[in-house]
Design goal:
The protein is an alpha/beta fold. It contains 14 helices and twelve strands. It is globular, with a radius of gyration of 21 Å.
């Protein structure tokens, strides 16, 4: 089954009780049993819900994995993965990653004895030098947020496997339409389904897909034991969103190409970051492991004073100033004060995340309208 068919059909069957082609929203907390331990596969909604189960099966098919496990948010999914580790273990992650991931590692898990190291993961030698006998997990984010660096998933996973280290790829920016990390050797793939999978900015949900049964069983245990599960309505909305994933992401990629070219040609724009650019340092890696280059774009102004960036951020009409990404509407954001504010400024600057960096999540509107909007906003600088 090809991907464009999987998003419609994989793991999804008409409802057996009614024939409904759309998976019903099983809005229930408990299930009647015929006798103690005699039930129809479901006992209590924290442990399992039919709407959630269909979504988990669909996600597993999209990522070519063994099974999916859904959570209340992307960070709840990451939290569950980190709970597979113990005090004294170490996690190595990219030095350019989502601020919430950094905060979870540093502020929540380090006090419990789980150490974190942050390295430029696109540099395989730097990564290998950072590994120690205590390293148990390599956390890969590619494309990275917000500098859009590309990590060679296969190379990192080969290195990790040679040392008995587990790997997880945060695939939120790419979605399974653009890359399938399990096919490249990753043990786990994680999503904030709030973003491209849901695609309509109307839900919060996280998901993990495991390559093998052993990890999926452990994560289902954490899911049930910790209870950070999504509600059936959110699961239904993700299932609905996935049906158009291929159409939405491809349109976003096409629009992003037009935006990138416009920004490269604009006299007031300095650095433009997008893996589709032929002079991007990891362009060849991106072309090898991705099917297209994504709808995320970051850029600086030549006049890099923050107040000039704020003129652009507050001046757009179609690009809405907001957190998040991956919806049908285009968004504009300021990572230093929004998505990455939890990372100390000195670390942000050292990694290349300037105070004036602007991040775009390019949506599916008419490309010409988006370019006109950016042009009038840049005219304020």
């Amino acid at each position: 089954m090809k991907f464009n068919t999987k998003v419609i059909h994989a793991g999804i069957e008409p409802d057996p009780s009614s024939g409904a082609i759309m998976t019903p929203i099983y809005q229930t907390s408990t299930y009647v049993q015929e006798g103690p331990g005699q039930h129809k596969g479901y006992e209590y909604a924290r442990t399992g819900n039919p709407t959630r189960r269909v979504l988990e099966q669909n996600l597993a098919a999209l990522e070519n994995g063994h099974d999916g496990i859904c959570f209340g948010s992307g960070l709840a999914a990451m939290d569950a993965i980190l709970k597979l580790l113990k005090a004294g273990d170490e996690v190595v992650a990219s030095n350019d990653l989502y601020g919430g991931s950094y905060r979870l590692l540093r502020r929540i898990f380090e006090p419990f004895g789980l150490a974190s190291r942050f390295v430029p993961m696109h540099d395989l030698r730097a990564l290998e030098a950072a590994l120690t006998p205590a390293t148990r997990l390599i956390w890969i984010e590619t494309p990275t947020n917000p500098l859009l660096q590309i990590v060679d998933i296969r190379a990192v996973c080969d290195l990790a496997r040679s040392k008995g280290i587990m790997t997880c790829v945060d695939n939120t920016f790419a979605s399974p339409y653009l890359q399938t990390p399990l096919d490249l050797g990753a043990d786990l793939v994680m999503h904030s389904a709030t973003k491209y999978l849901g695609g309509h900015s109307d839900l919060v949900l996280g998901a993990v897909v495991a390559r093998h049964s052993e990890l999926s069983e452990r994560l289902h245990f954490v899911q049930n034991a910790s209870g950070a599960v999504p509600g059936p309505m959110d699961c239904f909305l993700v299932l609905r969103g996935i049906k158009t994933l291929h159409l939405r992401v491809q349109r976003a990629c096409d629009n992003a190409r037009a935006v990138v070219q416009f920004l490269r040609d604009h006299p007031k724009v300095g650095r433009v970051l997008h893996p589709g650019l032929s002079d991007h340092p990891q362009h060849e890696v991106a072309a090898r492991q991705m099917r297209d280059f994504g709808g995320m774009v970051s850029f600086d102004l030549k006049d890099d004073r923050p107040d000039q960036a704020w003129k652009v951020l507050s001046g757009t009409r179609l690009f809405s100033l907001a957190e998040s990404l991956g919806g049908v509407e285009s968004l504009i954001g300021h990572p230093a004060s929004m998505t990455h504010a939890s990372i100390p400024r000195e670390e942000r600057i050292a990694n290349g995340l300037t105070d004036s960096l602007i991040r775009l999540s390019v949506g599916v509107e008419d490309a010409g309208d988006l370019l006109e909007d950016l042009d009038q906003a840049l005219a304020r600088v």
